Amino acid sequence: MAQIPDQTTPDQTLAGFRKSIDNIDAALIHMLAERFRITQAVGEYKAKAALPPADPAREAAQIQRLRALAEEAELDPEFSEKFIRFVIDEVIRHHERARG
Fold it and tell me: Has keyword NADP (predicted)?
């Protein structure tokens, strides 16, 4: 029979897992912030150069590339596509705003 951890003492294994998750979450936020700083510059460049906010061919290539990376990393490619699509849509929204 499995032992239930005593709720009065902290579970060190769980705490270690959670600390790692917290560190990864922080890294993700910093990476997204850097990504959006760069895409903001791209949006400003596109606005000055009179380029369209969206680039469907680039988006399709990126989605295909990231799905392949997800498969290699044993991450659900459907999840990775939903995630990058969300990011791309937000970038396009920013580019449209820079254009206006």
Answer: no
